[in-house]
Structure formats: C-alpha cells, structure tokens
Amino acid sequence: MERILVGIDACHPFWEALDRALCLGPRIQARVCVLVVFAPNEGQGRETARAILRRVEAEIAAATATGANVELFVTEGRFEPELVSAARQLKTTLLVAAATGWDEQGGERETENLGRILAGVDCRVELVSPKKRLEPKKDGL
After folding, report:
1. Helix and strand element counts for the chain (H, E)
2. What is the pTM of this model?
C-alpha cells in the first residue's frame, strides 16, 4: 500500500500540497499522513494554532467522507527536519511537498531548505506549485 506524507508548516501553511495529497490518496488507494509542524517557542498565538488545526481537521473530515484513509500527526520543531524524520518513521512512499516556501520576512525560502528535504527522504517526491492568482485586468479582460 502506498503511504503519502504531506507536511503543513504552521508558520506558513501551504494548503495546495494538502489538497493534492488528500485528492490523490483515494485515487491510488493510499494512506495519507498529514503532519502539522508548529515552531518551537515561537509564541504563536493559540488562536492561530487552533485555526490552522481546525482547517486541517475540516479538510481531513471532508476527504474521509469521500473514502480517504487519513491520519493526522502534530509536532513541534523545525519544519524540514521534522518532515524528514516523519517520512522515515512512517515509511513514506510518496512525499507531497511545496515547490516553494516562505521565509520569516514573507519572501521565498531559499532552495537549500527544499534541497535538504529532498536529500533527506528516501521516497518519491511530488512538488506542488502555488495556484496562480489571476487578477482581472483594468479593462475587464
């Protein structure tokens, strides 16, 4: 059985990767593991953390209702090492990850972070890009 892992960095959640994993799981009859990683001692507001978990749980509930086999894991630490560790522990066969990430200033995270994830896992990886947000042109076209 395929085992899909998708990680959610609570500091900068990338929802498209979660959507992709939850849609793919039932189609290939895979177990989907969702890992939510909160930064240690960051002082992230409890309301923000609750909102992230509520959204993840709602998406999991919707996927489960359509036949997905999903498990939720929550941890605290640095995102990249936690994701790599979980991939090993859960014997992941496919990691669904964000093609780009965000740093503390809201800019793109350096590719070395993604490189560390790719180098640290021993499974296939599917990179998901953000959906383009097309804004209407001023002339309405």
Report:
1. 4, 5
2. 0.83
